[in-house]
Amino acid sequence: MNRVNLLQNRALRALLIPRWPQLGVQLAALAGLGILIAVGLVGSPVGNRNLAIVVVWIAWWALLMLMLVPFFGRLWCSVCPIPLPGEWLQRGAVLGPTASSRGSSGEARAQPRRRGLRWPSRLRNLWLQNATFVGLALTSLAILTQPRTTAWVLIVLVGSAIVVSLVFERRSFCRFLCPVGGVIGLYSQGAPLEVRVVDRDLCTRHIEKTCYTGSDQGYGCPWQVFPATLRTNVSCGTCFECLRTCPYDNVAVNLRPFGEDLFLPGPRRLDETFKALVLLGSVVTYAAVMLGPWGELKAAAAAVGTTAWLVYAGTFLVVTLAIAPGLYWIATSVGRAFSRVRATSAQVLSAFTPALVPLGITAWGAFSVSFLLANLSYLWPALSDPFASGWNLLGAAGVGWSPYASGVAPALQLAILLVGLTWAGAHVRRIADELGGGLRLALPVLAFTLVPTLGLMWLLVG
Amino acid sequence: MAPRRLSREPLARAAVGLALGLPLGLFLIWGAGQLGGAQLLRARTAEAGGWSPDALTARVGETLHLRLTSEDVLHGFAIGQSDQPAIEVPPGEIVDVELTFNRPGRYVFYCTRWCGPNHWRMRGTIEVEGEGATETPPLPAYVALGIDIDAPHPAAVAPSRRPSAERGAAVGVEIPARLLSRESNLGLSPVELWQALRAEPGTRDLADSQVWDLAAWAMRATVTDEMVAEGQTLFAENCAACHGRDGAGEAAAARPTPPATTASHAHSKEPVDFTDPQAMLGASPALLQGKILRGGMGTGMPYWGPIFTEDQMWALVSYLWNFQFEGWL
What values do phi and psi take at A112, rounded to 5? Predict the structure, then answer.
């Protein structure tokens, strides 16, 4: 096995299994979230001077796309503060199973105080997350530039997570609704980090299945996954709860080669395919709106509620929901027709999903470089004077705007896009061969992968 | 294990309280700062609301501490009829300013940066109360002279060439002292001055254009180089955006900029073309000063009375003749 179980390292084991270290980071994130909401509501309405805008949409999003997701997969979900209040209310505890969640005879109860309803079967997929992501994306330019709107988005997310946690079981919000959760889940398949069981047979023989049902050591999987059946990172929130509840120490946190999930045989789900295409369409549209030379397009995207915005929103929906999936469908259909593979159209359509993952994560990475390096200098004065009220906490309130490494950025973006194209191309060739279609099946899909890459090269690098 | 974890739950809850208390504490500290002695004055373009608040109060001799911040673009802050230099207010930054007033009255503060199509509407007032006599503004010259500044004032005659003060000085004709007095000339338009000079016996042999040169020279003799230079600076800072640096009235700010400019904000009249002899040679200095002081009444011409001092307005008027006469500067 080309994997290394990080839990073999005592320091990492001491960091990941006890609750306190994770809770400490979660609380720091929660405090940060509270500050960002307060600053967003009452701080400067000037976006680049408001900590909420600068931290959430410049620093955090770039960190997510360039560092956390590509290298650590879903690790952000393990400390994300958004679902915490809801989860604590649902459990009736912050740290772990408490006296109130124990039976009358004192035995530990596996379930939280509120069990909640099971999330509807028809919605146990990424479709709702596709919808919430697109809904947020349509108004994103207003959200990205208006601190109060950003604060309200954060409040709505926390509120929604609380409501969902009180009605439905476990982390249904994170798994099926969070607009960012779906993005992280899909792209975390490329990351070199995973939580997996060591010996599946041991899980099969374990009658209590405490990793799913819970024990006095912890809760049943909040992400509603039976770890023994985990194939990819998509649905695992790396909350490390199963590390605590497995009585046989049979769960590992593995360091693995990049993109191992992408090699798994068998068809993928169409909601995943669609998610990957929506994200590809979105990043190209974002780059066109924010970095392209079309001022009217940018103005229309920002003028939420106006006729111009309705036209923009319609165009965005057409690009992300019709053109991107449509081009992909044409490419796979042409390949299927030329290669005469036996697989059905839907099977071919979903089979190439693994190729869309590296294409997408690198596209978002290259896009993130453009705004991160250009705008990161706004972070220091915003941290120094979070309420824009004349404070100078870090002595950097007077630091002016200055783009970083502007000479290197285009080369870096080009390199990231080429890595993505090459990585995606390799998967296209492999999958085409596995389907028995060879180069004839691969060529149209390869041509499809060129469309977003070349489009972004033009928009980002020029 | 279990009993230890049980004892830690209250600790965890306390930690949650701390985590939530941190932003709350920061918020309270910020709120306390807002209640302190300094008054936050937010600047937005006139289209977005202008100054907020736009009415302040102060006491004579007491320091008024303002914290200026812009919520959109670069603005400037200045007190009308004051020697205090304008202060830049960059977006999102806090600029502290302390003001002390020596006498009661209503003072106007205004934006000094061309921040939007209706920049000049971005004004506010400071009501200063306390001991001392309120300064009474002098009676405007146009009122004292009984000039109707809204009446048409076309030039009855016009020169065949651009008059030159320099050539006028070289003509060598003695001009009566009454026509070289600034006070007596305030109510005379260049045409009226030319007519008065034309009627003088000493100019009988001169061509009309030479008398125009004499009129230019007589007008230039009533103002100083310093006045004209100050007028030039004031014009560039405050007038050129509409009237143009060349005075022709076709500058960017004079043009409607849809859709940002709403119908109610649009200029109902084009700015005056200072290079047009018909528009200018029939206007007296007092009439021009009156236009500046009172504004254009619905034409888009701002009301400069509370902004410029008396001397500044006369300096501006002295510079305006530069667009009609050669060798003025």
Answer: -70, 175
Q: Which residue has the tokens 């009308």?
A: B80
- For chain B (329 residues), the mean pLDDT of every run of 10, in chain order, is 59 93 88 75 91 94 92 92 88 89 93 87 93 84 92 90 92 86 89 94 92 94 94 92 87 56 52 91 95 83 90 95 92
Beta bridge partners of A139: none
B39, β-bridge pairs? B66
Q: How far is B259 from A306, CA to CA, in rounded Å?
A: 13
CB-based burial, A160-173: b 16+ in 10 Å, e otherwise: bbbebbeebbbbbb
How many CB pairs (< 8 A) connect A and B? 87
Report which of A137, A265, A246 is spatially closest to residue A195, judged by C-alpha positions.
A246
Cβ B165 vs Cβ B328: under 8 Å: yes
Structural domains present in chain B: 16-129 (2.60.40.420), 139-329 (1.10.760.10)
Cross-chain residue pair B19–A30, CB shorter than 8 Å: yes
Q: Name the 3-class secondary structure at A172.
A: helix
**Could you tell me how many residues make up chain A?**
462
Angle subtended by helix axes A270-291 and A295-302, to nearest 10: 120
> What's the ipTM?
0.85
Q: What is the dihedral angle through the alpha carbons of A203, A205, A208, A211, rounded to the nearest 10 degrees?
A: 0
Q: How far apart are CA A327 and CA A323, in angstroms?
A: 6
Structure tokens at A241: 């709860």
Q: Minimal CA–CA distance to B140: which of B280, B283, B286? A: B286
Contacts of A50 in chain B (CB under 8 A): 92
Q: Which residue has the tokens 């990351």?
A: A191
Could you give the CA distance from residue A366 to residue A20 in angstroms, rounded to a whole number? Answer: 36
How many angstroms separate the CA atoms of A320 and A130, rounded? Answer: 11
The helix/strand/coil state of B86 is: coil
Q: What is the DSSP string of B58-85?
A: EETTSEEEEEEEESSS-EEEEETT--SP
Residues of A in contact with B6 (CB under 8 A): 98-99
3-state secondary structure of B327: coil
Q: Please determine, for residue A107, whether its predicted confidence score (pLDDT) is greater than 60.
A: no
Complete edge-to-edge strand list for the sheet that includes strand B123-129 = B55-59, B123-129, B105-110, B75-79, B87-89
Q: CA B302, B323, B328: angle at the middle one, nearest 5?
A: 120
CB-based contact, A37 to chain B, within 8 Å: yes
Nearest chain A residue to B26 by CA: give it.
A35
Query: Which residue of chain A is at minimal alpha-carbon distance from B72?
Result: A46
Other Cβ atoms within 10 Å of A307 Cβ, number: 9
Supply the pLDDT for residue A113. Answer: 65
Q: How far is C-alpha A140 from the geometric centre of its chain's CA atoms?
A: 16
Measured between CB atoms, does A46 come within 8 Å of chain B? yes
Contact B16 A94 (CB under 8 A): yes
For B26, the closest of A28, A35, A108 (CB atoms) is A35
Work out the minimum CA distance from B102 to partner chain A, whole angstroms: 28
Helices of type H across B115-269:
141-144, 165-171, 182-185, 190-198, 208-221, 225-234, 240-243
Indicate the pTM of the whole model. Answer: 0.78
* Beta-strand runs (E) in chain B: 39-43, 51-52, 55-59, 63-70, 75-79, 87-89, 95-100, 105-110, 123-129
CA–CA separation, A459 vs A320, rounded Å?
A: 17
Distance CA A103, CA A109 (A): 6
Label residues A69-93 b or e (16+ Cβ within 10 Å = b): bbebbbbbbbbbbbbbbbbbbbbeb
